[in-house]
Write a structure and sequence with these properties.
- The chain has 221 residues and is α/β, with parallel strands linked by helices.
- The protein has seven helices and twelve strands.
- Strands 4-1-5-6-12-11 form a six-stranded mixed β-sheet, with helices on both faces. A two-stranded antiparallel ribbon has the order 2-3. A two-stranded antiparallel ribbon has the order 7-8.
- The protein is globular.
- The protein starts with a strand and ends with a helix.
């Protein structure tokens, strides 16, 4: 049977009046293409629906390859994430990053519901770069369901390097550590993906491909 992947992307377009944001294109385009190459059925949704904002910095040097153009098209006119989307209908859940995810994913009840249900079912749950912001408010009995699990994400060092640390609602590495996860960083900008059971996390844009490959490996096992 064809595997079904649900990719949830940000709808958030601005950090403040001076800083545009959105999805980091590579973190969507690379996994999206890898999943299509496997013949997977990929569904893309966002909290607000419509066209996904693209972080302009992620489009520098953009090449209009067929794969990139298909990925751009897939981010247009998205449906809104709502109760229509159930964990039972999908084989894996994937969250690309971009600073926008820090603002609209943590508090979304559908994000929290899907993460709980996918994880409880033991299906692959993956997030890249700032995508793990989706995890920070998923709790059971007031404790993070990820406590004690091995996780990586965009590090505080990387956040300071891009000079956006003062503009974030929270520092992602710090918050994850506060929740009791075993945070596993690598050097800044290294291709680094951590797999803990069904949980796959990638550190940064450079980790987009390896995170997608880890999901594919889990789905094939």
């Amino acid at each position: 049977m064809t595997k079904r992947i649900l990719m949830i992307v940000t709808s958030h377009a601005h950090i403040d009046n001076d800083h545009q944001t959105g999805i980091w294109f590579e973190e969507f385009a690379v996994p999206y293409h890898k999943f299509l190459q496997q013949g997977y059925d990929v569904t893309v949704v966002s909290p607000a629906g419509g066209d996904t904002p693209l972080d302009a910095n992620s489009m520098q040097g953009y090449e209009a390859t067929p794969e990139n153009e298909a990925a751009k098209k897939a981010l247009k006119a998205l449906p809104i994430l709502d109760d229509r989307y159930q964990a039972t209908d999908f084989d894996a859940l994937f969250f690309p990053g971009g600073h926008g995810t820090m603002f609209d994913l943590p508090d979304n009840p559908h994000v929290q519901r899907l993460i709980r249900d996918i994880d409880q079912a033991g299906k692959p749950l993956a997030a890249v770069c700032h995508g793990p912001a989706c995890m920070v408010k998923v709790v059971a009995d007031n404790v993070s369901i990820f406590k004690g699990r091995r996780v990586t994400a965009f590090t505080d060092s990387e956040e300071r390097a891009v000079q956006l640390d003062k503009l974030m609602p929270f520092m992602l590495e710090t918050r994850l550590r506060e929740l009791g996860v075993e945070f596993v960083p690598a050097a800044d900008w290294a291709d680094h993906t951590v797999v803990d059971g069904n949980l796959v996390t990638g550190q940064n844009p450079q980790s987009s491909g390896s995170a997608a490959d880890a999901v594919i490996t889990l789905l094939q096992s």
